[in-house]
Amino acid sequence: MLTSANLLLRVLPLLFIVAACQQPATKTVQEPVDTIAFGSCNRQDLPQVIWPAINQNNPDVWVWLGDNMYGDSDDMAVLKQKYDIVLQEPGYQQLMAKAKITGTWDDHDYGLNDGGKEFAMREQSQQLFWDFIGEPADSPRRKQQGVYSSHTYGPEGKQVKLILLDSRYNRDSLLRINRVYQINQTGDVLGEEQWKWLENELRNSKAQVHIIGNGIQVLPEDHAFEKWANFPASRKRFLDLVAATQAPGVILLTGDRHIAEISKMELPGLNYPLYEVTSSGMTHVYSGANSEPNRHRVGDLVNKLNFGVLQFNWGEQVRVEMQIKGVDNEIYLSESVVY
Fold first, then answer.
1. How far is CA 116 from CA 8, 106, 129, 263, 277, in A?
2. Tell me: domain 35-338, CATH 3.60.21.70, correct?
3. Segment 110-168, tens digit of pLDDT
4. What does the DSSP assignment read for 3-42?
5. Domain segments of the chain: what residues?
6. Which pTM value belongs to this model?
């Protein structure tokens, strides 16, 4: 006789199998990360042609680097509607089903073009960002000032720590005259709470590689657009902190510019070269930027639709391959470094 208890015992294993099959095919935290992909400047009302190439790389982690959609509004209903368009994109849904999703924002998804702490709706906008990225409703990150976060992937000895900064929420104002940004010599980018958090994340880390991402470029100094160099005191503080903490294998990821490039700096006090990979944009690029000064650039400037990839080859040391790729998954730029 088949009792209710016996029936439950037969059905439960099947339910577990079904549930397992429905889970995203992502690696556990105990497995080394092989591939991190990233990108920025994703205008939701333009053709979303880059997703097939991104998915071909089967990334373990996808990192948004800002302008994840173009909201430019203090109306939270407008921002939510535009985030929802991205969430409904089939190519992005395919990526979400198999990769861990994280990221930070820049100005257009923040809500105010070129904006900083003067944006009146920054608290409300922050909650929409966390909704978009999938941050749990009870997460402590929802109570902090800004969308900064850190994530550690892989087992001890083969760990990557991803540190994502918020260069909008607490950023001081920046004057713009005749389309040229003026230098704010003493202006701050992160705010003291985030600075302390960043130092702690670097000093108390056991990871072999540290990826630091934010919306705007850090190393480039020569162009006239938004960049950390417009806040020289903050830029120096950041670079000094990287050198002082001696965190191994720091690589910078940035977006914003509607171009792609790789920059490199020999930082005093650091025993390896500091690289920055800029990937932008996913749906549109700056057609006029066939050339642009950047004393730190290695390789070419790319003004075609693009996304970035980091490939990790683990051994006694780790080799990191930094790539910029296009809509056909072709490689536009490639640099490698061993830590």
1. 57, 10, 16, 25, 23
2. yes
3. 999 999 999 999 999 999 999 999 999 999 999 999 999 999 999 999 999 999 999 99
4. -HHHHHHHHHHHHHHHHHHHS-----TTSPP-EEEEE---
5. 35-338
6. 0.91
